[in-house]
Amino acid sequence: MGEPSVFSQIISGDIPAEITYEDDQCVVIEDRAPQAPTHLLIIPRKPLTNLSDAQSEDKSLLGHLIWVAAELGRKLGLDGYRLVINNGRSAGQTVFHLHVHLLAQKKMPEQGLM
């Protein structure tokens, strides 16, 4: 395994960051290059490289990350938000430690994905 990711270094305290929420499974920080007025990163303490690396034993952790996003949405009074997980370099992932982007307070383009 290579160097620890910037997120692993934040979690370990080696790099200072303003943590807006944390529990035993994850930490939440503001994105340093926000794409919306509210742009939070929900980062699991477990250093999974990306979503494709998650195993069966990670199901509860993955659910917890989504629950934390919903809880933050409620606490921040967000009337809508988007959750994004970039999985792999070709999908735009730049930090190879799984994380969920919570984006809000910006009109997002409608996408015909369904």
UniProtKB/TrEMBL annotation:
Top-level taxonomic group: Bacteria
Ranges spanned by the short sequence motif Histidine triad motif, renumbered to the chain: 97-101
Domain HIT span(s) in chain numbering: 6-113
Segments traversing the membrane: none
Single annotated GO MF: catalytic activity
Active site: 99 (tele-amp-histidine intermediate)
Pfam family, one: HIT
Entry-linked InterPro entries: Histidine_triad_CS, Histidine_triad_HIT, HIT-like, HIT-like_sf
PANTHER family given in the database record: HISTIDINE TRIAD HIT PROTEIN
Name of the molecule in the record: Histidine triad nucleotide-binding protein
Source species: Microbulbifer okhotskensis
